[in-house]
Specification:
Elements lengths: L9 H26 L4 H24 L3 H10 L9 H15 L7 H12 L3 H4 L2 E2 L5 E2 L3 E7 L5 E7 L3 H10 L1 H11 L5 H15 L2 H15 L5 E2 L12 E5 L6 H4 L4 H20 L3 E3 L7 E3 L5 E3 L5 E3 L2 H15 L3 H10 L11 H16 L4 E2 L2 H12 L6 H4 L9 H17 L2 E2 L1 H9 L7 H14 L1
Parallel strand pairs: 5-9
Antiparallel strand pairs: 1-3, 2-3, 3-4, 4-6, 7-10, 8-9, 11-12
Helix pairs in contact: 1-2, 2-3, 2-4, 3-4, 7-9, 8-9, 12-18, 12-19, 13-14, 13-15, 14-15, 15-16, 16-18
């Protein structure tokens, strides 16, 4: 276990983060000071070099940590967010890809202790058969295949021993990381953002809570024509162990090789599931990860993993939809008023409605523009840069805005959804799909019509 131990000491983990933060602060200062003496081309080259160095250090630091810090790295592994210049992107993606698969390998003997302790009975009483080799590994646990005494095949998700302490240590260090963010965007309420992140991550440690999230979506999507949520085995789901129906299907890497029509269908289902969960049902998974869905043999897509989950009140969701409509209708004054009243603009009088509209439009144009758009990694990169990166054309004007904590995970979900769709190279008029929940319009796609019939039947 020595090589697989999960460092839980805040001092040890703070040292890693602190060295990273101090190193980046010094490098940024050095780059800014030197840039005074450089021409524009040389300054850009120096910035690119610093970005590559920073990216490599981030990968290295996250790779030595488990729990929450590693989870952030895993999210980055499939989101090409323009962290590095294009010529370095492939190498950086390779490094992050390795991080995604670098979950700790804990012996089955130790994982078995977690299962039997939580279920309060020997493994042989809970399961007729249990495969000791995990079928999947994640940042805070492993998944095993097993068979219940009644013959049902199930997936058993088991939390790593000690990972909860590691995650809590990561969360104690979150303020240190967010201080770096505060230097880039001084308008952000870093404390409120940190509190929201901690709340969501702590919830993810409780598998009983995740089981409740999954059951809620099972009820919503039962008998849905193309979305499937596996049933939960409630009797065997506890704080550190969760048992649900085992599903089989093809995965993301295979889907990237499919023909355009098939990729478009998968893309539309993926888009509908994550966006509709927020805008129709006001509850959604915050983790649109390529490993969290499967295409089943019957054409339905099974969605998995509901630990990082968010519920929003109607007022917050209505605000987001109203802002989207303001962008579609090019109503600058309305968008400025909405965001100002909601607290996104701490000093509304200092923000010009026109650049504000340009900033928001650049973040959501891909589903507010009424035309067919092929999403690509480059599109996702550009949207991410314009949304939150210091290289954004809006950064200087909008760096004093605030991201309200209740909307943080919705924006994260939206960007990660775009990232997956971009790697699929999915094409659609995404706006026409979104108008179903944005304006309550009738669907124009075949999948939309099937879904409308499903909702009509559910409401009857």
């Amino acid at each position: 276990m020595a090589r697989d131990s999960i460092p839980t000491s805040r001092v040890r983990r703070s040292a890693k983060v602190g060295r990273l933060a101090a190193g980046q602060a010094a490098r940024q200062f050095g780059t800014r000071a030197a840039n005074v003496m450089r021409d524009e081309g040389s300054s850009e080259m120096a910035l690119s070099k610093r970005q590559v160095e920073a990216a490599e250090q981030i990968v290295e630091a996250l790779g030595t940590m488990k729990g929450a810090a590693m989870k952030l790295g895993q999210v980055m592994s499939f989101l090409d967010v323009g962290l590095v210049p294009p010529e370095y992107r492939e190498e950086f993606q390779r490094k992050l890809g390795r991080l995604r698969d670098a979950a700790p390998k804990v012996s089955f003997k130790d994982m078995r202790k977690v299962i039997e302790s939580d279920l309060e009975e020997p493994l042989s009483e809970s399961f007729a058969d249990f495969e000791e080799e995990p079928i999947a590994a994640a940042s805070i646990g492993q998944v095993y295949r097993a068979t219940l005494p009644d013959g049902r095949d199930v997936a058993v998700k088991v939390q790593y021993p000690g990972v909860a302490s590691a995650v809590r240590a990561d969360m104690q260090n979150l303020g240190m990381i967010l201080r770096l963010l505060k230097r880039l965007a001084p308008g952000i309420d870093a404390k409120a953002i940190a509190d929201e992140v901690r709340k969501r991550i702590y919830e993810e440690l409780d598998y009983e809570l995740e089981a409740g999230n999954q059951r809620a979506l099972v009820r919503i999507f039962r008998e849905h024509p193309f979305i499937y949520i596996p049933d939960v085995v409630t009797r065997l789901s506890r704080e550190h162990v969760m048992v649900s129906e085992f599903v089989e299907g093809s995965g993301f890497e295979e889907h990237k090789l499919l023909g355009g029509q098939e990729r478009n269908r998968i893309g539309e289902i993926f888009f509908r599931f994550y966006m509709e969960c927020l805008y129709r049902h006001r509850q959604f998974s915050g983790d649109p990860h390529p490993g969290n869905y499967m295409l089943m043999e019957d054409g339905r897509i099974a969605f998995l993993d509901f630990g990082l989950f968010k519920r929003m009140d109607a007022e917050a969701v209505d605000l987001e939809l109203a802002c989207q409509r303001a962008v579609v209708e090019d109503d600058r004054e309305q968008l400025h008023r909405l965001l100002g009243e909601a607290g996104f603009l701490p000093r509304p009088e200092r923000v010009d409605p026109e650049p504000l509209m340009e900033y928001v439009r650049d973040a959501i144009w891909w589903y507010t523009t009424d035309e067919e758009i092929e999403l690509t990694p480059e599109v996702a990169t550009r949207v991410m840069i314009e949304s939150s990166d210091p290289r954004s054309s809006h950064f200087r004007k909008m760096r004093h805005q605030d991201m309200r904590p209740e909307h943080l995970f919705g924006r994260r979900m939206e960007l990660l959804t775009l990232a997956v769709l971009g790697q699929l190279h999915a094409s659609h008029n995404w706006h026409r799909i979104a108008r179903e929940w944005m304006y309550g319009e009738d669907p124009v796609t075949e999948l939309g019509k099937q879904e409308a019939a499903f909702y009509d039947h559910a409401a009857a």
